Amino acid sequence: MTERTPQNRMARDRAPQDRGAADEHRGRRMASTYGAGTGETGIAGAPAVTVTARGLPEWLEPVERAARTVEPRQLSRFLPPETGGRQSAVLILFGEGARGPELLLLERAGGLRSHAGQLSFPGGALDPEDGDPDGDGPVRAALREAEEETGLDPSGVQVFGVLPRLYIPVSGFVVTPVLGWWREPSPVAPVSPLETAHVFTVPVSHLTDPAHRAMAVHPSGHRGPAFKVGTALVWGFTAGVIDRILHYAGWERPWDRDREVPLDRHS
């Protein structure tokens, strides 16, 4: 059986004669610029934020298509409350390295109050200068936090989509996942050891490999998808979002959901 990976799926996703029309449609729907000058945010001098799917590599197009139609409950059973919660954003940054398509992740510092030591996407809470949480604020925050945590150059990131807001009950964060294509990669490393312990990329092919997948089981009884990355484990919110992206992009391969990895009570 042919392995379902981004590389060999992209040729089947759309016939060549359909690509021009699809690119035109995607450009109309996704190309937008927020907050230039004193735009939607009302913040003078704030840099413009552009969200566009033009020029994406073909292997990334299934993610962009899924992002246009996916509903919140298709991503998580934890949805934001009607009021309250701390607005935040994460950057789900896809790149292409020597090992093929990859994702940027980091290990959070062990001394942080929330989610200490966990592997996660770059991201954090919105600051007032990021702008409107209901407008371009989450995109600004995701790029700013990624720069502050990993040192990446945000000018090399093409934001191509924004997923519905989700909720992390244990910390009260209302999280907007922002999708990015690392069009012009830049060096990355922990900027502050007080925030970030390690910055790395993981191949998408590693995440889709059934041998690296399991269900994490918390002592509270909660079960959720997990990914083994070296000697570490991606679990919780980050693993749940990755799991759903792989599924709705059509990259998921059958894996053993009865394989469990226990977490300790301090996780």
Structural notes for this entry:
With 267 residues, the protein is α+β, with helices and mostly antiparallel strands. It has one domain (6-262): Nucleoside Triphosphate Pyrophosphohydrolase (Alpha-Beta Complex), CATH 3.90.79.10. 24% of the residues lie in helices and 29% in strands. The protein has seven helices and 14 strands. The chain has helices at 6-13, 19-30, 61-69, 72-75, 137-150, 204-208, 236-248; strands at 32-34, 49-51, 86-97, 100-108, 119-120, 123-125, 157-162, 166-168, 173-182, 196-203, 213-217, 223-229, 232-234, 260-262. Strands 3, 4, 5, 6, 7, 8, 9 and 10 form an eight-stranded mixed sheet that branches. A four-stranded mixed sheet has the order 13-12-11-14. A two-stranded antiparallel ribbon has the order 1-2. The termini are far apart.
CATH topology: Nucleoside Triphosphate Pyrophosphohydrolase
Structural class: alpha+beta
Q: Percent range for helical residues?
A: 10-25%
Radius of gyration over alpha carbons? 18 Å
What sequence of helices (H) and strands (E) makes up the elements?
Answer: HHEEHHEEEEHEEEEHEEEHE
Count, helices: 7
**Quaternary structure annotation:** single chain
Feature tags:
7 helices; 24% helix; eight-stranded mixed β-sheet; four-stranded mixed β-sheet; Nucleoside Triphosphate Pyrophosphohydrolase; 29% strand; alpha+beta; 267 residues; 14 strands; single chain; disordered N terminus
Write a brief structural summary.
Helices cover 24% and strands 29% of the residues.
Topology, please?
Elements: H1 6-13, H2 19-30, E1 32-34, E2 49-51, H3 61-69, H4 72-75, E3 86-97, E4 100-108, E5 119-120, E6 123-125, H5 137-150, E7 157-162, E8 166-168, E9 173-182, E10 196-203, H6 204-208, E11 213-217, E12 223-229, E13 232-234, H7 236-248, E14 260-262
Parallel strand pairs: 3-9, 11-14
Antiparallel strand pairs: 1-2, 3-4, 3-6, 4-5, 4-10, 7-9, 8-9, 11-12, 12-13
